[in-house]
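Quick one, T. Sequence first:
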Amino acid sequence: MTKLILVRHALTTDNQDNKLSGHIDSVVSEIGKKQIDKLTTYLEKVDIDKIYTTTSSRTKDTVQKIANLKKINIIQKEALKEISFGDFEGITFEKIKKNHPKEFQDMIDKGYEYKYPNGESLIDSYKRVANEISEIIIDNKDKTILICSHGGTIRNIITYLISNSYEYHWNFKIDNASVTILEVENGFTVVNTMNNTSFI
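Structure tokens:
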């Protein structure tokens, strides 16, 4: 059995301001720093074999302390990044609605298939993440893996592993600094823990 400990990065200043930050970098907020300390304490007694993050600083910063404590080198994976919001990186949905009403309506009408200008669609990000998590599971049979990533990425991982589809993407709530644990064996996935923030 491979155990996946999925951690969403701690709260960032962009999260607090409701700004879209997919592939752009964003800074962990003061609240987020406190979340990291509590998360580190929570994970300190958990057996972990490997730690993966994205190339975004907010994911690396979230688990650097636990990586140091356990003397594990972080492995960065570009393919585990959040969806790319393209031209809309760094702005809010409110501004998109106000300044780009046609694009905003397209988001509603096209749903999963909507592609952000010079960015990705949810389906694009799902396929990217599904391919990467498949490789990680193959490479880590019978190990416990911590993956610190993003809300959309974690939802993509869950819906892929339990349904082989992106259609349940929005059925999962993934809060900042939350822990979700999946157990994968012989192509079958059990959800052990979902969106746990009780330690924060």
